[in-house]
Amino acid sequence: MSDPREPAEPLEPREPLEPREPVEPLESVNATEPANLNAAEPAAPAVALTVPESARRLADGEWHRLHPATPFLRGGIAFVAIIGVIIVNARDVFLDTIFGGGSRELRFLERFAESSLIILAILAVLVILILSVGGFYLSWRMHTFRITDELVEVRSGILFRTNRRGRLDRIQGINISRPFLARLFGAAKLEVNVAGQDANVELAYLGSAGADDLRVAILQLASGTRAAEAAADAAAQAPTGVTGVVESRVNEFLAPEFDPHAAPPESIVRISIPRLIGSLVLSEATIIAILVGIGIITTIIVTGDYGWIFALLPGFLGLGGYLASRLTRSLRYSIAATDDGIRVGYGLLSTTNETLPPGRIHAVEVSQPLLWRAAGWWEIKINTASQATSSSGATAKTTLLPVGDMADVHRVLQLILPSLADAKSRELLECGLAAGAHDDDYVTSPKRAAWLRWFSWRRNGFVLISDAVALRKGAIWRSLVLVPQARMQSVSMNEGPLLRRMGLAELRIHTVAGPISATIGALDRNDVVRFFDEVEHAAVHAAGVDTSHRWRSAGVDAESPAPTPREDNA
Is residue 239 helix, strand or coil? Predict the structure, then answer.
């Protein structure tokens, strides 16, 4: 008699999919369950990567270790500083013993050295040194990572194990930073920005020469490339001997941050040093500091009290450090379009570069501070789904163009939204950034809104530009907010008691959290209601045809054979 739980005939699945465990964007587990980590090892990536052999080995789905100098760069520096303090004090005791004299502290150390406790102290220092070196070594041995066609995973910890995973289809960008000390060792930090709060996966540190190739490999795995065989670049020969290592370090320091062969020259936007310095001088923070300084000098001259200098000196030092940090962080700034998205690079001694894959930018704001108007400079900020903070600073996450003229703005916007390259879209963009009122396609606030928007009611408006929604705001501090229709999450209309009485409403487009608020107020209520119908059809159509999350698929689907079941799951 057959089991009633079994079907009479075997059911054939619609697709021959391989069973696998669901992978969360981020996960932490304890060392008490080590078997779960290796229960189901994913297969090697199904994508044929067009990167050097060294990067393909790191993205083969197997576990790998980080750069050998990682323990020193992560925590060994403090240990070396402690050893240095001990050596300096020992040197003082030695000099005091030879030449005589010395302070009371040195005489105490001398008496301690003559006692029998010196042997125990030396043994204790040796034990601590051995344990520290052993701990650093074990930490490096237990800190491993792997990259598959589904995720980037990192395991770390000696007593308390941690497993951190980031899904490739959730990647918002990949950031590579090269601190000055790490560059001396030929190391770099690769950070995979994943959608979610504090969900980034960090590989610190990797070999500097292979970090860029590994980033390309990760982006290719996430892009949806499906090629039967790809011609891989020849692997670079590793330098041998002391001369080769020194030459490699020198070349890394002197090489430009951005490879000129990685993008067409016409797509690269750079910031000149005079413009960068001018933007800092004309910033609000600098102007406030100058006004405060003038007030302090006037107060000192009138009252004769010099105590104000010492009271406000820490604030001035902090402001100077902030401006110097912004300057050094924006030197060698470049923005370019690559096959895997927009790449932003900056930095002088410590360099950073980040790649934003297509479709990961949810909102764009082009703004102009009042003091920049005479020079015609603009700033571009963006919203992405990655909300985690990193050591590279928030400016690298949200500011895409620190300062640029109108030509730079158009070039950067075309990198973000290529559909804005046509003449009609360019005309609407220029109308959105121009001052004053214009007879254009923007739906602006009615005249009765002047009670709420004294200066800006003539500019205050919105329009559909190609596959984006544009919100034009401000008369003194002008700004233009662009939201790609495929990235819109919802649209809302708000009416308070005052707005309802005046027949006005506030329009809000909901995107991911960030510095940009896609909100515009004091609009005619009927115009906002009509906008709902227009944007509804536009957003649904844009989301249906959007393929930016698999940005390499469109170019290879026609040439590639039918995907295997494993490839369809990747």
Answer: coil
> 3-state class of 90 per DSSP?
helix
Per DSSP, the residues of 342-398 read EEEEE-SSSEEEEEE-TT-EEEEEEEE-GGGTTTT-EEEEEEESB----TT-THHHH
Cα dist. 344→486, 537, 569 in Å?
Answer: 23, 34, 31
User: Which residues are CB-neighbours of 437 under 8 A, at least 6 positions away?
Assistant: 444, 458, 459
Q: CA 193, CA 386: separation in Å to the nearest integer? A: 6
- The reported pTM is 0.71
| Listed residue (225, 213, 275, 254) closest to 51, CA to CA | 213
Provide the 10 A C-beta neighbour count for residue 428: 22
Q: Which residues of 226-235 are buried (b: 16+ CB within 10 A; e: fewer)?
A: bbeeeeeeee
Q: Which tokens go with 370?
A: 């009042």
User: Does the pLDDT of residue 568 top 50, yes or no?
Assistant: no
pLDDT, one tens digit per residue, over 168-187 is 888 888 888 888 888 888 88
Count CA atoms within 13 Å of residue 399 on its CB side.
Answer: 19
